[in-house]
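Researcher: I'd like a structural prediction for the single chain below. Treat it as a standalone chain; there are no partners to consider.
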Amino acid sequence: MSDPKPSTALPEDLDLLRTRLSAGHDREPLGWDGVRAFEAAHDVVLPEPYRTYVAEIGDGWAGGVVPLGEQPADFPTPAAERDLAAPFPLTEAWTWEDDEEHDEDELEVLVDPVYDHGSLVLGTDGCGLYWHLVVSGPQRGRVWCVADVGAGPFGPDFGYEGEGEPGFAQWAVHWTGE
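Model: Treating it as a single chain, here is the predicted structure.
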């Protein structure tokens, strides 16, 4: 579970994060001991480059990235009740608002893990729309938008036009609006 190496983040991703987020961080970086303590407490290893961002650059950002392990005040589940080690349940976008295959009770059972398993809440756009960084499961390292109507991975639908799988660094560019 614990990663003995300080970082395997791509230098260009860290440069991007330093450029976009370092000036507005809310808190000082946690340092590697703080990151490893969080990981041990939750039985996860955080994906790069987020892991190095929190350890070396800053723990949160005034533009809306919440500190590690915290979440927006209006998030529906208390942080202590979320299970970061359980795999994030989705691998493709799902609009449960339009799901006619399941009744309301079945939907609740299927939707709750989308909010509460295998992801950190990065921030909110308000009105029940939250950005999650997946830390466990097949989508590990991807950022997902989870809203009251459905969920989908950050990518072209949100303005990302780069090559490869978008992750935390690419999402940070989107988030900062540049």
